[in-house]
Amino acid sequence: MRPVTTTPPARSRRRALPVGAVLSVIFGLMAAGCSASAAPTSSTSRTTAAGRTVSTTPPFDGGKPTLDAPGQRLATLATVTYRVQLSATAAGFTSATNSLQADVASGDLGAARTDELTAQADYDAIRTLQSSAPADVPHIDELSSEVAPGQSFTGLHAVERDLWASGPLATDVADLVGQTPIQHLLMARPLLVVHQQFSPEAIGTAAVNELTWVVDEALVIQQEQYSHLGLVDVDATIAAADQAFTDIEPLSERVDPNLTATVATDFAALQSDDHALGDPTSVVDGAVTADARLQLARQLDATASTLARLTALLTPYGTNGGGS
To answer: 6 — alpha (psi -120 to 50), left (phi > 0) or beta?
Structure first.
């Protein structure tokens, strides 16, 4: 695993995972490992920067990946950890919108602005998964320019307009809160039913899509047109992609430790470039220079490229350790 870097608390978008949920999976995997019969293999090992010993013999046999038992358990752990994180993020989104409504009702617009930015960051973390089923996704993150003829401008950006410019704030907040249970349901449905989409390969692909979205959309289109705090989208989406990579990293280290180290280095550089831009909740879009945007875009592309190569190697490891 890569060493942990310290960042300002205000920038952290990751939510603490329910410890019991993850530990129960870990203990289950340990029990499975005790009962599994593994064929003897010839392998070497190395010690990571964090002091953990990992195998440096990729589970390949004659150039074809093999589904070794330790790899299967790591695949299962990645899948379940990712599901728990998504559930926590969806719950956090609901909590943020509820706090937003309460603060608007009490007249605390400063706190309401903070709530709106928090809700936006939570949505950014699940954006790519929600957009995979556009027919089911409510208009939570539409820009005013994207509203179809005859439709109303609602969702996060309507509330953003109301808070930083003007508009029917209480009405728009109530509409947003009314949509958040739908959002949570949409997250719960794949958690419970469509398990295959959370295979290690799919987790890596989601992270690649998140990085690509930042390059194609967040850096070139002003997403926060009223608060002008577009770095909130950039920072939260990069953090979500980094977390997804962290989830599959133990497995990818086993499959290809060298390429995994390269991706980890790319993410460290990406986070450094992102943090250099300043606090996303206070640095306005106009303060970010064109050169800084270009440097970040290049690092995003580089990270997405190496991560995509690594993700392709995880194809044999389907959800819950089974084949794809």
So the answer is: beta
C-alpha count within 13 angstroms, C-beta hemisphere, residue 2: 23
Phi and psi for 280 in degrees, rounded to 5? -65, -20
CB-based contact 150:203 (threshold 8 Å): no
**Residue 169 CB contacts under 8 Å (≥ 6 apart), including other chains:** 104, 159, 162, 163
> In a 10 Å sphere around its CB, with 0-12 CB exposed, 13-18 middle and 19+ buried, how is residue 22 labelled?
middle
Query: Which pLDDT tens digit goes with each residue over 150-167?
Result: 989 999 999 999 999 999
The residues pairing with 60 across neighbouring beta strands, listed in sequence order, are: 65
Q: Residues 24-79: pLDDT tens digits? A: 544 454 444 444 333 333 344 444 443 444 444 444 444 445 567 888 899 999 99
Count of residues making up the chain: 324
- CA Rg, the chain, in Å? 21
Q: Given the DSSP bridges, would you call strands 60-61 and 53-55 parallel, antiparallel or unpaired?
A: unpaired
For residue 47, the cross-strand partners are 53
CA 209 – CA 203 distance, rounded (Å): 10
- pLDDT recorded at residue 68: 72
The CATH code belonging to domain 66-321 is 1.20.1420.20
Q: Residue 106 has which token pair?
A: 């009490």
Q: Which amino acid is at 43?
A: S
CA–CA distance, 324 with 316 (Å, rounded to integer): 6
* Pair of tokens at residue 78: 């990645």
